[in-house]
Fold these 2 entries.
Entry 1:
Amino acid sequence: MIIDISRSIGPDTPVWPGDPPVVVEPVARVAAGDPADVSRLQLGTHTGTHVDPPAHFFPGATTVDALPLDVLVGPAVVADFSGGGPIDAGRLESQALPAGTTRLLLRTGAAGGAVTADGARWLVERGVRLVGADTLSIEAGEAPECASGEAGEAPEYPVHRVLLAAGVVIVEGLDLSAAGAGRYQLVCLPLRITGGDGAPARAVLIPAGDATS
């Protein structure tokens, strides 16, 4: 069995505030006498189910076309956080994840359960290389406020910065409604956009132990 955990892309696809909307414009149609149907697609690099590489927040860092495929394909764990509330280090610890988990998908039911900064540090400290969520963003808020101090302002989007600075790949906008908690094989392949700060992806899960032909 293969579970498609990517969302379809079309004019009604929700996008992050300020990102370009999806436009699918027909440019040739058989019904109009053209030899084939062809459409023009306009969308942002962080549309629908998409991958965030380090270059999303750190110019000069690894871009989406340079991500190692062995991070995007391999054993993964889906953890259920559908109860809502922030996903902090304590909640992550309470999941008792299998030893050696390197790809973790957070099933929140799109209830807004976002990872906190200490949750992000917990993931990095435990060697997670890829973390995904079924929300538009893995962290809360449209633009988290900065906290000032003598050492300067804390950066916005602390979760993205903690994870991406450590080389952890982020996958957002997943559809985990058909994937219960447990172990799977993940295949998540973003478009190979040259120098891309992100890219839409087709992502699927294969339950552990299943064989496909």
Entry 2:
Amino acid sequence: MPEPASAFSKVEFLVSAGVTGGLPPEDLPELAFAGRSNVGKSSAINALTRRKRLAFVSKTPGRTQTINFFDLGGRGRLVDLPGYGYARVPQAVRAQWDQLVGGYLGARRALAGVVVLMDARHPFTAHDEYLLEWLRPVTQRLLVLLSKSDKLSRQERTKVLSTARARLAGGAHNAEVRLFSSLSGEGVEETRELLDDWLRAAGTGDKKPPVKGN
């Protein structure tokens, strides 16, 4: 039998939620995308879904203030989380966003995996480290995408990938790490296939993969 089409081939906007009480029902597995403001998260979502403006690409850090849900052909949901690490918004707004995202990640039973984007040129900032530490007890299914890899030479890409894998392994994170570029296409197909696998596993009741080393 032919392989089923990717869940990312049929995607539609579902709802934006500004409070945890406005989230949709937990009846489908969800893949959450997180990353520092302006790290290329929206561009990555657009590349994975083969849509030009599904997720709005902004040059203004902190523009996205809600959790945006997209239906993946009834097989799951893509969840676009507000960017973190924003410095040009009021403290009260930042606190509200942190509460919203924290409430989602900490209590969402439908969460099947988290995709964290880091700029391949400047990975593991203090904000990135904070999020990874916060995610440690939340999910074992974690993917780190080193975005904007097209900005690096081949040697630099090899080095940053190796360093990232070692760093995550040293921190006991059960994480996949990939180089990713929405411009060159590096890592796009491989990432789409991996996330399809995650959705299929979650749909069959396999909520989390075994912890590495066990």
